[in-house]
Design a protein that fits this description.
6-stranded mixed beta sheet; 4 helices; about 25% helix
Length: about 210
């Protein structure tokens, strides 16, 4: 019996100050992000989706809403799909902008492999895997869609592909509103399929 669990990254966020917003409340989708969510809803309209679940953060809930609505489903919430915890939350810090070369940040950067500045990669992978197992069980023989965030989805994928979890953030294959689809035969993961129904975006987008 085939079951598919789609891991959807949320759409673009309204973030004029360009801060790393992480788990901060109140960050909604931008107009472009709303269009991206609708594009994904159209792309999966013909799929056999019977379960839609999202991170508790506003941007993920808003991304899930049109998809759930198109399938006449409610959006469930799973705390395990939330963005990774990060000590730089609320700051204007982005990959490649030079901010991390400032001495006041060095203590947080002592161990890039865990990482020292936030939630350990292995903990992210384990909680995300728990969310996947719950979604797979809820959609047994059909399809589920989980809305989460770039780092958790990418960490989960690397874990499932038996790759080291620390990585270069600039090389993540997880665009805004992209789908990382996990295909199960029974309880066995047999394939991972990546797609970008809303197009490709820069993996360095701040706070995504």
């Amino acid at each position: 019996m085939t079951t598919v669990v789609h891991m959807l990254r949320h759409g673009e966020v309204h973030n004029p100050e360009k801060i790393l917003y992480g788990r901060l409340p109140g960050f909604r989708l931008s107009e472009r992000g709303q269009r991206q969510a609708l594009t994904v809803a159209e792309a999966v309209a013909g799929h056999d989706i019977v379960h839609v679940v999202a991170s508790p953060l506003q941007r993920a809930q808003e991304t899930a809403a049109p998809i759930a609505g198109a399938h006449r489903l409610d959006v469930a919430t799973d705390e395990r799909l939330i963005e990774a915890d990060n000590q730089f939350e609320g700051k204007r810090v982005a990959v490649g902008d030079g901010a991390l070369r400032q001495p006041q940040h060095w203590s947080k950067l002592r161990d890039p492999f865990t990482p020292s500045w936030g939630e350990p990669y292995v903990e992210i992978a384990h909680r995300m895997l728990g969310a996947v197992y719950r979604a797979r069980a809820a959609a047994d023989g059909h399809e589920a869609l989980c809305v989460s965030h770039q780092l958790p989805i990418w960490t989960l994928r690397r874990f499932l592909e038996a790759k080291r979890l620390w990585h270069d953030p600039r090389k993540r294959q997880c665009s805004l509103a992209s789908l990382t689809s996990l295909v199960f035969e029974g309880e066995e993961l047999v394939r991972i399929v990546y797609s970008e129904p809303a197009g490709a975006t820069d993996p360095k987008v701040t706070g995504a």
